[in-house]
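Morning. Coffee machine broken again, so started the prediction first thing and wrote up yesterday's gels while waiting. Chain of 355 residues, entered below exactly as on the submission form.
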Amino acid sequence: MELTDRKKRVLRSIVDLYIRTAEPVGSKAIAEMPDMNYSSATIRNEMADLTAMGYLEQPHTSAGRVPSAAGYRLYVDELMADYRLSIDETRSINCAIEEKMQRVDKMVEKVARLVSQATDLPAISVASRRGGATVKRFDLILAGAGSFILVMMLSTDEVVNKLIKLPLRVEEADLKLLAAVLNATMTDLSADAFTPALMERVMASADSAASLVPVIVDFTADVLRRQNSTNMAVAGQARLLDQPEYRNIDKAQRVLTGLDEETLSGLPAVMQNASGTQVLVGPEHVAQELKDTSVVMTKFDIGDGLQGMIGVVGPTRMDYAKVTARLSYFAESLSKMFNKPEQPQLPEHTDIDPK
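Came back before lunch.
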């Protein structure tokens, strides 16, 4: 038995209605749908055929039909329409992402303070994304005569959107072509790949929508750079002044000046492919300003594609065994905490005696 276009339309309507209502669907309900111009008798015959072909099931003798597993499979593979996120949906998703990142920022600051308390040394805490985020899919939605919405699904399963004003009249067909070009040329690329050469290549394929490409490329590259940025906090810098090595004011000032996020920004790169605890002693340090100090650092898992790092900066004569043990315990505990189904609040104080 042939699966005609009419049968496919009826099956798609049944699946759509059943998804919304969770009730078996009858021929009358399908006939009353605005885009269905067939009689109830015709639809009833088609439903009987679809049942015989295994795409529908009849739960009771007098009930309507429900999709079978084969019916759902065909629906997913061929029949379902693309779902367009509404502005409210994209706004809601973006608010959730922003709230999550604000929580990560607060977490980074609190972890730095706790590690500094536990070791009685200046501490750093970092949260960064494993690997680089990329765009998995582009969608362009015409929002009116003078604007459209750019929607990007990222490899992190996050959705980002932007309302873009049109510099010229563009039809929906132009946006569909441009979306196809973007999905063919700009997905699975890192932020560094968004070069002028890439922009020229995309513009050459975008036909009448070529003038929209620069703003899309710039926005995409900016989103990926922000996604791949690192959150860092430094705490307890003044604790160095308790160490005999830094009672000399000039020496202490040089070291304290270097204990900032800019100077320490190279440390996450050291840990990127490392495993376990890493120690940088004196001249091995990534920052010249801190060549007379040592750094001990280790990683932990935050979840949701994020990786954390904690470390301390101190004199080269620091108690490496004690510091390493405390950092390792912190990292293990943080990994367990952040990967629980419900994340507890970080404690304000630690019971570890820094002495």
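The chain has three domains: 5-79, 100-130+229-338, 135-227. Going to sketch it on the whiteboard this afternoon.
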